[in-house]
């Protein structure tokens, strides 16, 4: 269905604001702080940032880029390549910008995704000069209808001095109505967030803005860059089976029913593959309350397993994009997109009692998790929402293969060299080897479960050797460590290319 | 005012349950799980656990002890000494039990204090055989009125198979009405917690129990062990001044008013001394929404600075005990005691937008905080509620003197050897040297603020040397570290008695 620009811009006076990407990009000044839509490749501002990157080739321009989460493969890359980014907040996932962050050329603030809105509200980050928001329409009563993500767009639009809308005509207008935009009051005057079930709607269908703040409307027709999900393999299938068995145990223990509890699943191939595992399970009438809906969720909706899914972003493969956006009316009453402040809000997560499933980079023998830093120093992507969900969930589960790089790296180490989730927050660890349920256990009770159930056989004895020596050295302290060797596995990896002891 | 036992036990049939401490202790079996009242010395079960410890001298009896937080100086000590504790949950602060935890003889689960109730509710910890609750009365409609703390008593009483009440007659009946007992529904059916202001009351004045679960009522008249607060000194006064100046800056920036925001202040002498500093400040009509009310809060109420204080426990010095409990009617409408699930609830903390002030054991150059483990291995007390407050507060502030043990220890180190609060959660660090405001900053932006503003002069250059070498080694990675030296300060301390480089 083709819809004219006029039909998509409900306020006639705004038609005079229609500009080219170059004209819109010209409004932005060196030193500006720009809040962009976009969350894990979905619904990101596409054409104006690229026009700005072009401009920055011949002009000294450096901006701070705030987003929901990661953008598509082009924007961060192009802006970073031309040196146009001073500071990046609160998540990224692009190799080019990642390299520049790890060369010290771009400042990066890696923050809990639910915290971002509070920082803007308080003026800790900002003031925001421009919000650039991808939209599918502007309604006659002044609502900007987002596309495939909501992210931080509502809070950026609210606090920005100026707004640029990227009107994306690639989406049909059936996206109208799938969003639920609610912004909490200021702290001190704040009311409870009246979201009691995953499917509850508490806000408006779009982002309410003052139309006079809209400085430009740029028409685009680029679809989101598809996700790069890697297909499930034998090991992710095994991990999924372990997870399903663990959940069956919870039902047997009387803690869950066959409907489980609303599920959050982190971003990436492993989390997606594990979630795919639910398709062949006996669980049913499942609800998803997550940050990002990946392919697996739509496959589970199709399979009749998932009855409702709440998110802040839809990040799917090319095949799924065709299927979902070509039949959005089929899914429209089964999904809702919310601001990331709400999808990740501790109040809501704790109330609903989520089962949170996130991927770990590495885990240590006491259950601390590193989600972000390769060898403790090199930023990978960021913590994203994993902390929001992990801390407040009913059951926080971390999944990781027990090894990486052909076995030269063990994903379970004596001490993680960077801590994103501490022992206080990590409930369950799942690898292809098995499951360690750490809930209610003291550190010394966790060690045998983690080593015996989760570690790759190549590293079991080596971890036991570390632990036993640490116990002896400390005389059995609460959390035995040998500080001279706690990080030696990573040192060994850097020097000899392997964590394996000689 | 003396009140007869009959007046304190509103249900006549329960008078037959009045027993001696020894008789009550005899009800408990080897292997039982016992949930006790008590939170930082306040309102703890006193006589029955001691009778149990006596019994355990001649009998093989080992129980799991769950509490609100730490108990008075005797109970943990005596039970631990006779080997009667298998597992201790979720906080302790006694030297004797601490030693046995660090010898591997007692298992200890160090948990976020707001998480405890969920673990009981789910049956992850438990089932609870006995709840032993100190009370000032049992009302005719079956409410147990707690004394000077609420802690986890409501959830333990609800889920315990049996209840023993320690009826403490040392308190007058004017404690009736200062508690507000609310237990959230099960996750999945849970409603919003309707607590919108620090002073809101949302529950009942006591713990509603089935009277038939009460197996014994033991009369006692022991008051709480007074707190051991150390008086403010020049350095804590300087820290208080730094903190007040920081808050003045927040007002100037338009982020706070003269009334600030509800204040949470951690347990211990440093946090208390810093809070005392508000007495001479220009701030007024302050609210406290905290875990424990220490001396400073009552002094601030007397000084007309604090208008209302919410807590789960009142832990005060002997002098203050006389003043407060001798004139409880003076304070009764200015305080409320809640279950720790509510005083520490992320939903409420995030909604109210607290200013959280907690003490750190040590901090690293990126803002990670160790609150619990001396040199990364030896448990001190526990994380307590610091994580509940820190993660969800408007401003999370950590206070610590910049050095310890006569300067042989720097409280700011290259990398903390145990992580309780990560870089994602720590906003502001205050030492006697100054303030580092880390909000919205990248790791490399935090380093100079922490080193220049907070570190003792003796260690500044040594930290710069570490950092500069790490930057060079990694080529400027996001979080530069030299993993071979990251924990070397603690290794040096263990070997040479000092963190100072030669």
Strand content of chain A: 15-25%
Q: Tell me the quaternary state.
A: homodimer
Q: Which regions of chain A are unreliable across 5 or more consecutive residues at pLDDT < 50?
A: none
**Count of β-strands of chain A:** 26
**What is the domain total for the residues of chain A?**
2
Structural class of chain A: alpha/beta
Largest sheet of chain A: 9 strands, mixed
Taking the alpha carbons of the first and last residues of chain A, their distance comes to: 65 Å
Global shape of chain A:
globular
* CATH class annotation of the largest domain in chain A: Alpha Beta
- By CATH, the superfamily of the largest domain in chain A comes out as Glutaconate Coenzyme A-transferase
Number of helices of chain A: 18
Report the mean per-residue pLDDT of chain A as an integer: 96
Report what the structure shows.
Two copies of one chain form a homodimer. Chain A has 502 residues and is of the alpha/beta class. Chain A has two domains: 1-220, Glutaconate Coenzyme A-transferase; 234-496, Glutaconate Coenzyme A-transferase (3-Layer(aba) Sandwich), CATH 3.40.1080.10. In chain A, 30% of the residues lie in helices and 19% in strands. The interface between A and B is large, with 84 and 84 residues. Chains A, B: InterPro entries: AcetylCoA_hyd_C, AcetylCoA_hyd_C_sf, ActCoA_hydro, ActCoA_hydro_N, NagB/RpiA_transferase-like, Succinate_CoA_transferase. Chains A, B: CoA binds at residues 266-270, 381, 385, 405.
């Amino acid at each position: 269905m083709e819809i004219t620009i006029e039909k998509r811009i409900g306020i006639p006076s705004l038609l005079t604001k229609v500009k080219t990407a170059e004209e819109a990009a010209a409004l932005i000044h060196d030193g500006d702080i720009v809040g962009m839509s976009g969350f894990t490749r979905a619904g990101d501002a596409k054409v104006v940032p690229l026009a700005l990157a072009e401009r920055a080739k011949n002009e000294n321009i450096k901006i701070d880029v705030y987003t929901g989460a990661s953008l598509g493969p082009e924007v961060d890359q192009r802006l970073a390549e031309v040196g146009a980014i001073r500071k990046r907040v609160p998540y990224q996932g692009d190799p080019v910008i990642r390299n520049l962050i790890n060369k010290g050329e771009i400042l990066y603030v890696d923050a809990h995704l639910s915290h971002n809105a509070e920082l803007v509200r308080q003026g800790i980050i900002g003031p925001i000069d421009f919000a650039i928001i991808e939209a599918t329409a502007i309604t006659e009563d002044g609502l900007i209808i987002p596309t495939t993500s909501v992210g931080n767009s509502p809070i950026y639009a609210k606090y920005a001095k100026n707004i640029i809308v990227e009107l994306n005509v690639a989406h049909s207008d059936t996206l109208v109505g799938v969003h639920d935009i609610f912004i909490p009051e200021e702290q001190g005057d704040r009311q409870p967030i009246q979201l009691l079930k995953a499917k509850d709607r508490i806000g408006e269908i779009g982002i309410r803005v003052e139309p006079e703040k809209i400085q430009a409307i740029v028409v685009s027709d680029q679809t989101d860059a598809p996700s790069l999900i890697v297909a499930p393999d034998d090991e992710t299938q095994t991990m999924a089976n372990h997870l399903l068995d663990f959940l069956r145990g919870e039902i047997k223990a009387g803690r869950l029913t066959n409907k489980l509890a609303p599920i959050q699943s982190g971003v990436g191939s492993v989390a997606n593959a594990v979630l795919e595992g639910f398709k062949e399970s006996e669980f049913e009438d499942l609800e998803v309350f997550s940050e990002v809906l990946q392919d697996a969720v739509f496959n589970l909706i199709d399979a009749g397993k998932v009855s409702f899914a709440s998110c802040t972003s839809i990040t799917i493969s090319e095949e799924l994009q065709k299927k979902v956006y070509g039949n959005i009316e089929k899914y429209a009453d089964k999904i809702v997109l919310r601001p990331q402040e709400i999808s990740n809000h501790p109040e809501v997560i704790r109330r609903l009692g989520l089962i949170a499933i996130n991927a770990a980079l590495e885990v240590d023998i006491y259950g601390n998790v590193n989600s972000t830093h390769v060898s403790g120093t090199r930023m990978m992507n960021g913590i994203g929402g994993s902390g929001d969900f992990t801390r407040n969930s009913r059951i926080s589960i971390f999944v990781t293969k027990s090894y990486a790089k052909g076995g030269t790296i063990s994903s379970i180490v004596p001490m993680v060299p960077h801590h994103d989730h501490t022992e206080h927050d990590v409930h369950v660890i799942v690898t292809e080897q098995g499951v360690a349920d750490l809930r209610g256990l003291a550190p010394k009770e966790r060690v045998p479960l983690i080593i015996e159930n989760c570690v790759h056989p190549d590293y079991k004895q080596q971890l036991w050797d570390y632990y036993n020596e640490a116990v002896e050295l400390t005389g059995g302290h609460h959390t035995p460590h040998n500080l001279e060797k706690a990080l030696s596995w990573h040192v060994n990896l850097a020097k000899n290319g392997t964590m394996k002891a000689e």
